[in-house]
Write the structure tokens for this entry.
Amino acid sequence: MARNTFTTKGITKVYGEGRSAVHALRGVDLDIPEGEIVVLLGPSGSGKSTLLNIIGGLDRATKGDAYFQDRNLSEMTDKQLTRYRRDHVGFVFQFYNLMPSLTARENVELVTEIARDPMEPDEALAMVGLRERVDHFPAQLSGGEQQRVAIARAVAKNPTVLFCDEPTGALDSTTGRAVLNVLKDVNEKLGATVLIVTHAASQAAMADRVIHFADGGIREVVVNHTKLTPEEIDW
Amino acid sequence: MAIGMVIAVGVGMLVMMTGLVTSLNETRAAYYERYRLAEVFAPVTRAPDRMETRLAAIDGVSAVEPRVVGAALIDVADFDLPVQAQAVSLPDFRKPRLNDVFLTDGRMIDSDHTDEILLLEAFAQAHDIRPGDRIDATMNGARRSFQVVGLAQAPEFLYTTAPGELIPDDARFGVIWMSRSALAAAYDMDGAFNEALLSLSRGANEAAVMAAVDRILDPYGGTGAYPLADQASNQLVSEEISGLEAAAVGVPPIFLAVAAFLLYIVINRMVQSEREEIGLMKAFGYTNGEVGAHYFKLVLAIAFGGALAGCLMGIAGGRALIQVYVAYFKFPFLVFQLDPASFVTGVSVSILSASAGGLLVLRSVFALTPAAAMRAPAPADYSRTGAIGHTLNRFLDQPSRMVLRRITRQPARMAGAMIGIACGMALSVSMITIYAGFDRTIDLTFNVIDRSDVTVTFTHARSDATIFNLRRMKGVTFVEPVRHVPAVLRNGLATHRGVVSGLPPDARLSRALDSDLADIPLKNVGIVLSTALATKLSIRPGDTLTVEVREGRQPVLQIPVTAVAESLLGSPSYMDLDTLNRALREPNRVSGAYLSIDEAHATDIYAALQDMPTVAGVSLKSQAEVAFETLMNTGAGAIRYVMGAIAFVITFGIVYNAARIAYAERSRDLASLRVIGFTKGEAAFVLLGELAIVTLVALPIGSVLGYYLSFGIAAGFSSELYQIPAIFDPASYGFAAMVVLGAGVASGWLVKRDIDRADLVSALKTRE
Ligand SMILES: Nc1ncnc2c1ncn2[C@@H]1O[C@H](COP(=O)(O)OP(=O)(O)O)[C@@H](O)[C@H]1O
Ligand SMILES: [Mg+2]
């Protein structure tokens, strides 16, 4: 049995105080095994992003512990969290978050320059099918292409885990499928654990494991034995 | 709301300063009117009383008051030297028709008691003299004891300056009022007067009246009538008020411009973040005008609110400040008046400048199509080929490239920030240069041009044998004669009423110096004018100047201008002493002397000088220097500290603002960098590197701007009394650069703190 990339124990997140407090997470216990594609599925506002941000080292839980391998993220200093993101984590967001002043390759180099064990920037861009457009600036790329640069940037460091928050949220079906394909490749070729947050139920079909999320907690975890390729997914 | 504050400060300053200027002018006018200050002053050597009726008969003259004035010396307990004073007569048994006095303490003099006097309040206070005290004074060579019965102020003595000196000083010049008959007796003026005061009827021709007065008084040694505008005290008050006026006109626009700029930035950001709403409204069928009006209303609300707050602040500030100035000018009462025009100007200028900022933003509102507005904005385009070559590129890591790209590929934005910071630098440079200029004026005047310790003024031009007497005094190391001759200098229509100084050819203590501070040899023929004078008369070396001497035979001379001399105090002109005497046909005459003395013998020397009947006054340079510094540190000169503080605040504001804007524009990029594993320091580098480069580039540009700006500001601070040079002083530039860099570091630190605190998650959620 593979070990877990993440284990969480009773993670609670409360925004605000008193009567206006929002309980975004209400005690989440979760195991994410190494090397799997995990889809976190749930309606908007159910706390998916909040959970992802906490285990991604971007935010802190109000209560509870989140373990990456055997290290407790809740006990890390800001510096250690930065180190953790730098060495282990790749992020892909709905709005790409590229540096507009850098070309596609330079955006990837931004990461490879500081990573411990990076791949060649061109190799990462080739993986996402952008070999021809490495010298283009974000303004010259379409939304899907920008998202693929963002993925290339996230995978170029050879991450242990790849977090994708609504990666296809701003994309049409064809581009969205292409992006999901890249994520699948990364999982297969690099062995990275991939965590995809989405509210589109159909994308769950490509996951090894689907975590159904509602109202700040896990409702159900389903292990998927009949994985579909992104091409086979209804959009 | 910070913007509203900036507008409020700008408008407040405008309202306050214009209110101050209006109130001071009104108060002065009311004071002059209430105490019937003369409009024409006509000094004369000795005119018989019957001339009064002839003067009164001149067309356009509404009142005449003849009086006797004379130089006096007052013994005061707290000075080694007697203090120079002017004795002024008050008519016997009636109020003066012109130039009345305002009794502040004690009672009026009784004309039956010839030893009763009034003393100028400011002088009395400086020496702690009270009604009831007795003082000793020397008049026309005779020492007498007087009874001080009252203290008084008068509109003609708001500022008092000893003859032969330029700097007003309450402690070193007094005014004595006493009965006409008593004073006439002291100065051999029985049945005669030596000054006529005239007031004019409405619509009278001042020049024609003065010409008529001159014709009447000429046979009696009239030295030329002059208008109130040329009266010493009034001139100084005018200078001070116009100094304030210059500040009133100059400073507020800077604030309003800054406010317009800020407003533009803020509203622009607001439009960017509300682009979806704008798109929706347009999609629902709102017109450009309607959507634009929404934002424009906001701009107007901020501008109007700021302006309103500014008006209130201005009124409050004006009320407080006017008290200070009323005390400073020694006005006995206050006419507080706000200039309604300044409210209108303040409000409309602030609305106009805010609108200018607002209109630019509206352009981008109009440009948004509903469809484009609903989408997230495209990433800024950096694809235009930049100036960085590929070779250079290879040596740069990505964050450095981000810094450089932003600078080379978004030059307009960077230029905005850079110009802003350069302006801050220019302001700092010019203000610090001005400070150096003030110091320079003092240094040049008191240590370079005039190197004497003591200046002695004789009662009138004497034989140069007096000089030998001075030289023989124990402790006097050097004596240099001087002859001051009152004269009107004329070049075409430009005239100047002043003094021509005759200096010996090898002058060592008081010298004419050129702009390199080298001695200007005084040629046998010719006159050397100070820069201020040459400018006022618009005359150049080689031209011929008309000199109407107002002493003795009063010859009118045509003298070539041989050189222009550097002078920062007053408007002196110099001639060779012998040449001057020859032109007056009064050989070997001197009117005063500059002395170098041995400090150890100072007290003895003062005592000896006091006993010389020919000595009208003695002034110590150390005292004059203190008085000058006091003058420059109060009144209009003091505004430089206010302006300096404002310049510093503006500089810091601009730099901080530039940093904030840069941060606002890039907060998402910085958060993204943090997310992908950049440390706080590495992420901050991208922003602070940019700020550093922009600031460093702005420094030299700002220095150049500041160099030119300092001329303007120096001219604003210069007055007829003193000139402030705009000197190129590397230390000032260095200091200004430190100020700007300090502001840069402080701003960088403040922004860095925000970068460190930034919530990564929420930064990622916000779209541009
Ligand atoms: N910074 C915040 N402050 C207050 N409430 C927040 C904040 N971020 C998220 N929330 C609330 O927490 C809940 C979960 O949000 P989120 O994790 O973004 O949901 P999801 O990603 O599933 O749509 C929501 O009710 C949201 O309004
Ligand atoms: Mg979410």
Remarks:
- Chain B touches chain A through 32 residues (CB under 8 Å).
- The first helix of chain B runs from residue 2 to 34.
